[in-house]
Amino acid sequence: MNSRVSNRSLRIIGGKYRGRKVTFPDVASIRPTPNRVRETLFNWLSPHLAGARCFEPFAGSGILSMEALSRGAARVLIIDQSKQVIEHIRTQMADFVSDETDYALHLGDALAWMRSANTELFDIVFLDPPFTEKLLNTTCHLLIEQHLLAESAWIYIESDTAISEESLPTHWVVHRKKKAGSVHSCLCMTT
Fold first, then answer.
1. Which of 21, 69, 116, 173 has the greatest number of CB atoms lying within 10 Å of its CB?
2. Sign of CA pseudo-dihedral 178, 184, 189, 191
3. Are 139 and 111 in contact (CB under 8 A)?
């Protein structure tokens, strides 16, 4: 394995797949959530993960969904526009997730998928859209408009700017916030 590939890997930090090495493709736009941030996030979410239905509309590395499955989520839906990313995540998942019904992968535009007729409701959503595309506001509002959130849903957001409650949809409350380097993150809950 060359050093470039070895630098494009992470380990699942908790749950039944703890310690499992996960690689991600050499795509410049992928910014995996660092271990310390992931550990904090999943400590915050731990009481809500068992049996949760999770949604990661801008997958990148897919590490948040893999970590959620490892810690007891019932199902994850992962979307990305890159065929390379989706195929890589498919390979990673096939390596260690024994039940293929635990996850679904969709190649395509996340906003188009959200606007289509869907009946799935999600308990936890991981929002980490490409910072340069300024998709966060639209994505948050589509979750509400398309009725994609279960009652008392949790939404994790990563952004290149600070997130204020005023910028979030009505009935979303910031539960926790953190800043690591230039990335702002927060965990919101619906009320």
1. 69
2. positive
3. yes
Per-residue model confidence (pLDDT) at position 35: 82
Q: Which of 74, 104, 70 is nearest to 89 (CA)?
A: 104
> CB within 8 A of 184, min separation 6: which ones?
158, 159, 160, 161, 162, 163, 177, 178
- 171 CB neighbour count, 10 Å cutoff: 11
Could you report the per-residue pLDDT of 121-151, keeping only the tens digit for each?
Answer: 999 999 988 876 788 989 999 999 999 999 9
Tokens of 73: 């989520």
CA distance linking residue 154 with residue 99, whole number of Å: 25
User: Distance between CA atoms of 149 and 3, rounded to whole angstroms?
Assistant: 41
Count of domains observed in the chain: 1
**pTM of structure:** 0.91
pLDDT, tens digit (0-9, with 9 covering 90-100), for 44-70: 999 999 999 999 999 988 999 999 999
Owning domain of residue 117: 3-190
